[in-house]
Amino acid sequence: MSYKLPSLPDEVTRPIIPMPIKKVKTFDDVLDEMEEALTGLKEEVARLQTALESRFERQMEEQYGD
After folding, report:
1. Which H or E run includes 55?
2. What is the rounded distance in angstroms from the CA atom of residue 32 to the CA atom of residue 24?
3. Following CA atoms 40, 46, 49, 54 in sequence, which dihedral angle do they give, to the nearest 10 degrees?
């Protein structure tokens, strides 16, 4: 008695497409990316701080008036 295996899914039988080779990063490239990320984080912190300060001021005004 022989048993027939089920066919393989398309994900297994389709051809493999090679990924493009990325440019090798230098240490300066990595530092530049980290600096950009840090700048974005600083901007986000400033935005959140402003929003929290405004919210706090509104709550104080609502609670205690002018």
Report:
1. helix 27-64
2. 14
3. -120
Token output for 31: 């530092």
Q: Is the sign of the CA dihedral 38, 42, 45, 51 positive or negative? A: negative
List, for residues 22-54, the tens digit of each pLDDT value.
777 899 988 998 999 999 999 999 999 999 999
Establish how many alpha carbons lie within 13 A of residue 4's alpha carbon, considering only the half-sphere containing its beta carbon: 2
Does position 65 have pLDDT exceeding 90, yes or no? Answer: no
CA gap 57, 49 in Å, rounded:
12
- Secondary structure (3-state) at 18: coil
The two three-digit tokens of residue 26, written as one number: 């230098």
Question: Does the pTM of the predicted model rise above 0.70?
Answer: no
The pLDDT value recorded for residue 18 is: 72
